[in-house]
Amino acid sequence: MSGFKNDTNQLRPEFYQVVITLTGGAGVYPTADGTDNGAVCPQDHSAFATKPTTYALGKRVARAHQRFLAIVENLQKYGDAQIQDAQFTSAGTTVGDNQATQVTFTVRYDRGGSTLAATGATVTDGVLGGTRLEIGSPYQFTATTDGTITVDTTTKAIRYQVAQAICRTSYTKRLRVWNGALASEADEVLTVTLPDSLADVYKDVAVTLVDSAETIDS
């Protein structure tokens, strides 16, 4: 056996299930044409068997996927997040005209699944540490009905990052947009704005630690 011993934080993958409720929750996710519509969806128009029937609906589908890409970006800011098993529900998941009503996926962190050892402890690594530094002391924000939230666990940090991604304002990205009137797609620059307040959206995001792998230390 060599004298090398790995850091346990590097060898304990953690898996978190994320559920985003997009109807019947605290937030309102517009369907009418506008930069705030579309909610969130893990797939773009190309994955739908029935494509969006109008240009406006094509843009709505693209904006929904744009917000999902923002979620991935946020979760990867402070750790090597892997997004797995992304799914959604709607009135018909094969039809592009139907806006998603719920999105679920799993996040795996191989490193950086930090938790606070005690109240007031300093954590600077991983999604928890990075999110706390991003928010700043005392690492709190206000969520609808939940009052003041102190970000002191990885699950809360993930919830915050997912909600922040959905609530980006003037977020611009180049995407492929399906125009149903022309039955073709085009490369466009789209802008999205927040569908509702961060406080409401945070309430609609649920995160659960579903598994933590065994540590290999020898």
Overview of this structure, please?
With about 220 residues, this protein is of the alpha+beta class. The protein has helices at about 55-75, 125-135, 155-165, 200-205; strands spanning about 15-20, 80-90, 100-110, 140-145, 145-150, 170-180, 185-190, 205-210. The protein contains four helices and eight strands. The strands form three sheets. It has a four-stranded antiparallel β-sheet. A two-stranded antiparallel ribbon has the order 4-5. The chain has a two-stranded antiparallel ribbon with strand order 6-7. Helix 1 (about 55-75) packs antiparallel against helix 3 and helix 2 packs across helix 3. The N and C termini lie close together (about 10 Å).
Keyword list:
disordered C terminus; two-stranded antiparallel ribbon; four-stranded antiparallel β-sheet; 218 residues; alpha+beta
Strand order of the largest sheet: 2-3-1-8
The overall pLDDT average reads: 87
Radius of gyration: 19 Å
What structural category characterises the helix and strand content?
alpha+beta
Shape: globular
Q: How does the major sheet shape up?
A: 4 strands, antiparallel
Which stretches are low in confidence, meaning pLDDT under 50 for 5 or more residues running?
214-218
The helix/strand series, from N terminus to C terminus, equals: EHEEHEEHEEHE
- What is the number of beta strands? 8
* Number of distinct helices: 4
* Oligomer type: single chain
Provide the β-strand percentage band.
Answer: 25-35%
How many domains comprise the coordinates?
1
Distance between the termini: 8 Å
- The share of residues in helices is 10-25%
